[in-house]
């Protein structure tokens, strides 16, 4: 391509008058020409000016001057030109730059650009330069691949990553530990965790970063049990986990409710004198909060020398999810007093605290204060929380009006909040409005049909219940099965309705039968209205008895000491019958029980629940 045709492809004039015009633009706006160092040559001045250019049209004129005056370009200038042209006009113009400056470009410069673009989070540019390397025959080296694979992971381009992997294999770089670790990270981030594990197992050499890539990959893919077991493998193999590893495995413990394992990791951090920086400290707070031990979370918070807004958010959210609304609001006040600026996540946690505690007046005040006091525009998630707050309290008309007037199109969370309120207060007509909108947005979500079925069942409208079930069968929609887990002796056991993958249920069923008899003597009456089948009362009672959280609870009573707290994690919202069941069990057996359902924690003790039956 000739110089003139290259200019034409970019729409660049090569006349000196256009360069003079461009210089005057820069001079009048920034006065950079007068600020150029005196010793700077005429050829160096344009490169100095390039630092100020942010406009693509200015860049084109600048490029014209560089080429017509045969000014030697440097790496920074080339990167700036590629960046501006790529972001303004796509890859075509940037590709022309490789053609024009191919005498200057080499493998080392390409690798340097890839690493720089990756470091500055310009991941598509990093990938683009790698593609240009191949096109022009520049050979990557071992430092090229980790950078481009990191960018590939960040933008989740697994197909491209596989092509990079194939090239690595062909060129013999597959023995490099840093390249292999980057591949593990790429596959795990792009949700190919099985491929990441296979590659990890085949690595001839591993280091702590390799193990961390796999552990965080499992956590990223919600394979929490595998993350913890891999952490144990890492220790057996003699590798010392670092701070990043700790954050990943603590996250896994929190999601599983594996308190004992989380405590062990905390002890390990203390024994090894690992630095309790803001990331590890925040992860510990989050783990303890998600395991229902807010006191320990607060101790960690108090011990941290450095905190940020995320640390405060985790603490406030921890109080909220554990039913300590007043503590959450007090923590928020402390946060503001200590000059930390709240963000949208902070205010969402505060509104949720008001919602869980039924604090209508306070919730309205905080919602209004978002823009007035903190300059935060409420998002749809904040409106959804307000709909939940108003609906739970019985202000259904006000909740409906808020949905009608809010500046967003209602999403499924908003309609589900209204539907839940209708179920609580028995408003079938408004509930049908909510479900129609829900089904329009999520026609294949089984949870929506279950909510509608429960609404009809509460009103004994069995024909309608049957119609909903038939509709689900026609569409091939299945409801999500309830699953509960419990940690016993450092192992996590899972239960589903009437079954378990981890234990034989014979003794669990026998224990439940004994519990049922004692419960009835204590006044337990099954909440059979929760059963959406028109069957006999005894059959309804039996179907309720084998819910997953009851199985986990019976197993906990059998396998844990009488002075320990039973901790259960459930994937769905706890039903009204199981909630009442746990209250009575806590009183009869004198046990503290903590159930974390999809929405919040329920701390049962002495026949009462921390949610005050408001959930």
From TrEMBL:
<dbReference type="Pfam" id="PF20431">
    <property type="entry name" value="E_motif"/>
</dbReference>
<feature type="repeat" description="PPR">
    <location>
        <begin position="308"/>
        <end position="342"/>
    </location>
</feature>
<dbReference type="InterPro" id="IPR046960">
    <property type="entry name" value="PPR_At4g14850-like_plant"/>
</dbReference>
<feature type="repeat" description="PPR">
    <location>
        <begin position="343"/>
        <end position="378"/>
    </location>
</feature>
<dbReference type="GO" id="GO:0009451">
    <property type="term" value="P:RNA modification"/>
</dbReference>
<dbReference type="Pfam" id="PF14432">
    <property type="entry name" value="DYW_deaminase"/>
</dbReference>
<dbReference type="GO" id="GO:0008270">
    <property type="term" value="F:zinc ion binding"/>
</dbReference>
<dbReference type="InterPro" id="IPR032867">
    <property type="entry name" value="DYW_dom"/>
</dbReference>
<feature type="repeat" description="PPR">
    <location>
        <begin position="207"/>
        <end position="241"/>
    </location>
</feature>
<protein>
    <recommendedName>
        <fullName>DYW domain-containing protein</fullName>
    </recommendedName>
</protein>
<dbReference type="GO" id="GO:0003723">
    <property type="term" value="F:RNA binding"/>
</dbReference>
<feature type="domain" description="DYW">
    <location>
        <begin position="523"/>
        <end position="615"/>
    </location>
</feature>
<dbReference type="Pfam" id="PF13041">
    <property type="entry name" value="PPR_2"/>
</dbReference>
<dbReference type="InterPro" id="IPR002885">
    <property type="entry name" value="PPR_rpt"/>
</dbReference>
<keyword id="KW-0677">Repeat</keyword>
<dbReference type="Pfam" id="PF01535">
    <property type="entry name" value="PPR"/>
</dbReference>
<dbReference type="InterPro" id="IPR046848">
    <property type="entry name" value="E_motif"/>
</dbReference>
<dbReference type="InterPro" id="IPR011990">
    <property type="entry name" value="TPR-like_helical_dom_sf"/>
</dbReference>
